[in-house]
């Protein structure tokens, strides 16, 4: 026998409107009531009739997500946070990858819109706002996550990249490092902001800035691990050798650790090392890597809650930006 919305309402002595609010993820329902409703739905194996709901409301109860890479651990966590949150509100998530290609991103966004998604979340690789300016006529709520085109007014949820650089450098300094090197990533706005955070931490802790301790390490045609190895070998030939190294990514940092060990240096006694991304693989290394966690799960959860508020017609300030704080996860390397 098919379980209907009114059956759940009758069982719990609640109105159908309250049950509907829970399904839509609205925030004007108490946590206790929400828990009761979701538990009863689980017990009765309730499945919303999406087709009927779509006919009544004109919505598809689907949300589109376009990310640069399906293999990037940060965006994997973002997607997990999104799914966990929108599922409880009766929405499905349609995920596609732009493969770090602006043209593919434009195609995937068009495909998502053709599926009549109710909202769209994008981690954009576009270098200009022209494409999104044209999209403004679609009237589909859009939220940028992690990345967004520069100087474009839209909702955004992410982490301040300057804070990422600051947290990593400050941690090394607080552990006793006074000659902190930085292996920069690609020449992007995000990488430049992390570098600014590194410089700000040096300044706040009265640590002299040494240009020779900043290595570009951004050759796109070479694997990140190999770049880390080679950059560390270069640093060890400098007149002033670093006692701490922060890296744009975990893979760079893994290369740095291996290069240091191959030179018979002790980590962290001789040199402390911090990465960025907190990827799962770094915990099983010979020297587990300290890393800045980019809070992808929380970014996804907060982006989902923002989208659900917009879809439920709650009043949301225009072009709202929500920032999640990065945190250092301390392990053996520091």
UniProtKB/TrEMBL annotation:
Keywords: DNA-binding, Transcription, Transcription regulation. PROSITE patterns: HTH_LACI_2. The keyword DNA-binding applies. Signal peptide: none annotated. Gene3D superfamilies: 3.40.50.2300, lambda repressor-like DNA-binding domains. One of its GO terms (molecular function) is transcription cis-regulatory region binding. Residues 3-57 form the HTH lacI-type domain. CDD domains: HTH_LacI, PBP1_LacI_sugar_binding-like. PANTHER family: HTH-TYPE TRANSCRIPTIONAL REGULATOR GALS, LACI-RELATED TRANSCRIPTIONAL REPRESSOR. This is LacI family DNA-binding transcriptional regulator. It comes from Edaphobacter paludis.
């Amino acid at each position: 026998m098919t379980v209907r919305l009114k059956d759940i309402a009758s069982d719990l002595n609640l109105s159908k409107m309250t049950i509907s609010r829970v399904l839509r993820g609205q925030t004007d329902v108490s946590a206790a009531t929400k828990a009761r409703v979701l538990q009863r739905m689980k017990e009765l194996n309730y499945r919303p009739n999406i087709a009927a709901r779509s006919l009544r409301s004109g919505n598809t109860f689907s949300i589109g997500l376009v990310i640069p890479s399906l293999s990037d651990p940060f965006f994997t966590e973002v997607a997990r946070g999104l799914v966990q949150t929108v599922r409880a509100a009766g929405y499905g998530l349609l995920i596609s990858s732009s493969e770090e290609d602006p043209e593919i991103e434009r195609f995937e966004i068009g495909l998502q819109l053709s599926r009549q998604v109710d909202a769209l979340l994008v981690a954009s690789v576009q270098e200009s706002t022209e494409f999104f300016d044209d999209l403004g006529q679609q009237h589909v709520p859009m939220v940028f996550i992690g990345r967004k085109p520069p100087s474009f007014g839209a909702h955004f949820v992410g982490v301040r990249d300057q804070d990422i650089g600051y947290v990593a450098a400050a941690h090394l300094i607080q552990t006793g490092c006074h000659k902190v090197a930085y292996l920069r990533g690609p020449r992007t706005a995000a990488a430049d902001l992390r570098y600014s955070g590194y410089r700000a931490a040096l300044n706040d802790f009265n640590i002299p800035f040494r240009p020779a301790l900043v290595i570009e390490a951004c050759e796109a045609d070479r694997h990140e691990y190999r770049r880390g190895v080679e950059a560390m070998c270069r640093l060890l030939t400098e007149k002033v050798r670093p006692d701490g190294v922060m890296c744009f990514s975990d893979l760079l940092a893994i290369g740095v650790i291996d290069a240091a060990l191959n030179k018979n240096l002790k980590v962290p006694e001789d040199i402390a090392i911090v990465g960025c991304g907190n990827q799962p693989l770094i915990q099983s290394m010979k020297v587990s890597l300290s890393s800045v966690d980019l809070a992808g799960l929380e970014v996804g959860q907060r982006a989902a809650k923002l989208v659900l508020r917009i879809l439920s017609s709650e009043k949301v300030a225009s072009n709202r930006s929500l920032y999640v704080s990065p945190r250092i996860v301390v392990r053996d390397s520091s």
